[in-house]
């Protein structure tokens, strides 16, 4: 299962910045436990897939997992040993823009110890600091 958008409005995006806090997805809404981003960063589709696999395998397919971020930002890369100029490179992969405070994963249908360990394994696959949170 690859995390890539079915359709994009513009094929190539500008870089943009990943500063500041998240505007939405600040609380655990779907499950009982969540994984919260403590810093702003780009998360690649491959990292998200690895994290999803880690948490679902630890839960032994019991319970439910929600992924609250989606990689919809195309990242371009020019080929090796190309001279400068000649325009922007082709789309290489997709990333999700995650700002601090955002809930990235939510789980339900398992006890707290299993959820905590599953989300810890998922957090190891991601390139940012995270925190385990419970529903209020």
From TrEMBL:
GO cellular component terms, A-Z: cytosolic large ribosomal subunit
User: Known InterPro entries for this protein?
Assistant: Ribosomal_uL16 (IPR047873), Ribosomal_uL16_bact-type (IPR000114), Ribosomal_uL16_CS (IPR020798), Ribosomal_uL16_dom (IPR016180), Ribosomal_uL16_sf (IPR036920)
Show the CDD domains listed in the entry: Ribosomal_L16_L10e
Region annotation (Disordered) maps to 1-21
Please indicate if the UniProt record lists rRNA-binding as a keyword: yes
Gene3D superfamilies assigned: Ribosomal protein L10e/L16
Basic residues biased stretches:
1-16
- Gene Ontology biological process terms from the UniProt entry: translation
The record's GO molecular-function terms, alphabetically, read: rRNA binding; structural constituent of ribosome; tRNA binding
Keyword match RNA-binding: yes
The record's section on SUPFAM superfamilies has:
Ribosomal protein L16p/L10e
Under NCBIfam families, the record lists:
rplP_bact
Q: What does this protein do?
A: Binds 23S rRNA and is also seen to make contacts with the A and possibly P site tRNAs.
Protein name as it appears in the record: Large ribosomal subunit protein uL16
Native source species: Candidatus Andersenbacteria bacterium RIFCSPHIGHO2_12_FULL_45_11b
